[in-house]
Design brief:
about 675 residues; single chain; 6-stranded parallel beta sheet; 22 helices
Length: about 675
């Protein structure tokens, strides 16, 4: 049994010696934050061994800084981690996780480090962490122990295998450091603010299993300075680590961080949790599928009088999995009937989109798309455990009642797999879809006196306020004006609040007196004014969850747009991650603004700077994704040929290439008034 105090003393001495012997150059790819822990603590962007020693000394010989520098040097010499390990996680992936960190589907983060004495006990801890909405990182022998216990690991399962050694757990610390800088506005080198942010907002704890080296024990011990409690199931004595029985570990850790989650079991033979929402079920893993182009399939949620259906009823019309062969493709209609005194017809499309979320909560069920374009799969593993098509209905019925208790008094789910019946039902469903679209289609910002706020991201970006209008969705792309309006009606005290526009200060900039008043109060006085249609004058703040970034290219007086999924450099010489590092955390950064994909094709897109007409570059994948809507938008401006005049990484990878391209195609930006 290791003595924690002695191990920390010896481990720190060993780390110090290794730092003195450190040589070479090293850095992490895919981040704007250098070695994130070291950068956050000292403000030094380490690239060489000398930089590392300077930062280490400036940090007061901090073992977290030493562990990170040594791990970065090791990664540079040995190469990246091989599957199933992730190693260092890039900024783009971390930003994708950002929305789950603020929407309630992740309530905290944990690190399991070391080698558990029992793989089954570790598996039980992980399953409870998944069920309790925790995002869990793994380092050391725990990864292989879970594999032997049959536990799926990976980002898709919110069990993230960082590496085979306990030392790989340093990436858990660098994620906390980057979240603080990305979302919390913590400036590199501001150690005091970093410590406060981590202690108050990270909601993290560590479980240390046996088998850690002295250097790893020193690293784990140092995490406590970030306000992170260390729990252990055994193998260590002394120090301040908290000894717990495996069955009590998750509850103890969550209680210590003030994390409260009520989990109600759903009576079906597979686990259900947001932890499974991001998984995929590949073709070879699939037992049965529906839709996806192979069969007709649709989903529809309808408000109906309660007397017309039976509350709690779940029925399957047509064949179930026990009567079809593996690999079968069946038709599917998912009909969810709801009733409630506070239920409104306008709620239907918003609640209907939750079908996607809820089905993906099942460990062995998978769902993509919506309406009559859905694609659903059930895995072989799930069917082997007894899961049926009817269990998807039970899952939906329980989740709708659990998530919307104030609005849904009764719910019935019918799943139709009879092909003829599905085809007969489709026209009625499509008629209802069209009626819904007509209610919101063409709505303009001037058609309403009320916008809506979103402060979900204040969990991590305390001063950021998103303003959502009919023509400007939330910058994360997840919430439209209609979504926000309905969310407010469903949860009046929630993150989406009505914002009266008030007097128009500037119609071109999109500045409104009422919006300014709201933003000043909701940002705790940090932001006085905001222009909804400009990137130069008082642009809207950003949290870090934005889908895209719009940035000025001063040399051509144009606008560049880059999406989060693009990993290359832009003509500005910066990647998405580098650009994102300049605008997150709730700050206003004139010339740069976070936007959603859908806002790009809006009439209000940066209208103060001529909007889409001034766009000169975007990645080819983004252009392809927006192609039809972009062409329609440009045709409405009587400028259909501009889309061919927007450069991408294939036609203009550098600034010089971009200048030459714009001259060659005679882009209209060349004749516009300079922006600055």
């Amino acid at each position: 049994m290791n003595s924690i105090d002695a191990a920390v003393q010896h481990g720190n001495a060993s780390l110090d010696g290794a730092m003195q012997r450190l040589e070479g150059q090293f850095s992490y790819e895919g981040t704007a934050y250098a070695l994130p822990v070291t950068y956050a603590v000292t403000g030094i962007a380490v690239q060489t061994a000398d930089d590392a020693r300077d930062a280490y000394e400036r940090s007061g010989m901090n073992p977290l800084v030493a562990s990170e520098c040594l791990m970065a040097a090791r990664s540079a010499s040995e190469g990246g981690k091989k599957e199933p390990y992730t190693g260092f996680i890039g900024d783009a992936i971390l930003r994708k996780l950002g929305y789950s960190l603020v929407d309630g589907s992740v309530v905290g983060i944990g690190l399991l480090v070391g080698t558990p004495e029992s793989g089954e006990a570790a598996a039980a801890i992980c399953r409870e962490l998944q069920e309790k909405y925790m995002l869990t990182f793994l380092a050391g022998g725990v990864v292989s122990a879970l594999g032997e216990a049959g536990v799926h690991v990976g980002l898709d399962y919110r069990l993230v295998p960082l590496g085979p050694d306990g030392a790989d757990g340093i990436h858990f610390a660098d994620i906390i450091a980057r979240v603080a800088m990305m979302f919390g506005g913590v400036q590199p080198g501001d150690l005091d603010r970093l410590l406060v942010y981590a202690a108050e907002r990270a909601k993290a704890f560590v479980v240390a299993f046996p088998g850690l080296t002295e250097e790893e024990i020193a690293f784990v011990e140092a995490l406590q300075v970030l306000g992170i409690p260390i729990l252990t199931t055994g193998g260590y004595e002394g120090g301040t680590w908290i000894r717990t029985a495996p069955a009590d570990t998750v509850r103890t850790g969550m209680e210590m961080r003030g994390i409260r989650v009520a989990v109600t079991a759903i009576p079906i033979p597979m686990a259900c949790s947001p932890a499974f929402e991001g998984k995929s079920i590949r073709k070879e893993e699939m037992y049965v599928e529906f839709g996806g182009g192979r069969t007709p399939a649709f989903e529809l949620l309808r408000m109906r009088p309660q007397e017309e259906f039976r509350d709690g009823a779940v029925s399957v019309v047509g064949p179930d999995v026990d009567s079809v062969a593996p690999g079968t493709a069946l038709p599917l209609a998912v009909l969810v009937d709801v009733a409630g005194q506070r239920m409104k017809k306008d709620f239907e499309p918003v609640l209907e989109r939750r079908i996607h979320t809820f089905i993906n909560y099942g460990e062995g069920s998978w769902h993509v798309a919506q309406r009559d374009m859905i694609w659903v799969r059930i895995s072989k593993d799930a069917v082997a455990k007894g899961v049926t098509i009817g269990d998807l209905g039970t899952l939906l019925a329980h989740k709708f009642r659990m998530e919307f208790p104030d609005h849904i008094d009764a719910v019935q789910v019918t799943l139709v797999t009879d092909g003829q019946k599905v085809r007969e039902m489709l026209p009625e469903a499509r008629t209802l879809y069209a009626e819904r679209d007509e209610r919101i289609a063409g709505m303009k910002d001037e058609d309403t006196e009320t916008f809506y706020s979103c402060t979900l991201c204040q969990t991590f970006a305390p001063n950021h306020v998103c303003i959502i209008t009919p023509e400007r969705p939330a910058l994360c792309g997840a919430i439209t004006w209609l979504d926000a309006r309905i969310a407010y009606e469903i949860t009046p005290a929630g993150a989406n609040q009505p914002v009266r526009k008030g007097d128009v200060i500037d119609p071109v900039l999109g500045e409104f007196a009422g919006v300014n008043r709201f933003v000043k109060k909701a940002s705790h006085g940090e932001t006085d004014r905001v222009s909804l249609y400009s990137m130069l004058e008082n642009p809207m703040t950003a949290c870090g969850c934005f889908e895209c970034i719009a940035a000025i290219v001063p040399e051509v007086s144009g606008i560049l747009i880059v999406n989060r999924d693009f990993g290359g450099e832009t003509p500005l010489g910066m990647t998405f991650s580098t650009l994102a590092g300049t605008i997150g955390g709730g700050a206003q950064t004139p010339g740069f603004v976070g936007v959603s994909r859908n806002y790009i094709v809006s009439d209000r897109f940066l209208q103060a700077e001529n909007g889409i007409e001034r766009v000169v570059w975007m990645p080819s994948t983004l252009k392809e994704e927006l192609r039809d809507r972009l062409r329609a938008r440009l045709e409405s401006l009587d400028m259909p040929n501009i889309s061919e005049k927007i450069a991408d990484e294939t036609t203009a990878p550098t600034l010089d290439d971009l200048i030459a391209f714009l001259e060659r195609v005679d882009h209209p930006v060349l004749k516009m008034k300079p922006l600055i």
